[in-house]
Amino acid sequence: MGKRVAVVLAGCGVFDGSEIHEASAALVHLSRGGAEVKIFAPNIEQRDVVNHLKGSPAEEKRNVLVESARLARGNIQDLAELKASEFDAVIFPGGFGVAKNLCSWAVDGKNCTVNEHVNSTLQAFHGAKKPIGLCCISPVLAAKVFPGCEVTVGQDKNVDGRFPDAETASAIAELGCKHICKNVNESHVDKANKIVTTCAFMCKAPLHEIFDGIGTMVQEVLKLA
Question: What start-end ranges are recorded for coiled-coil regions in this protein (predicted)?
Answer without folding.
Answer: none
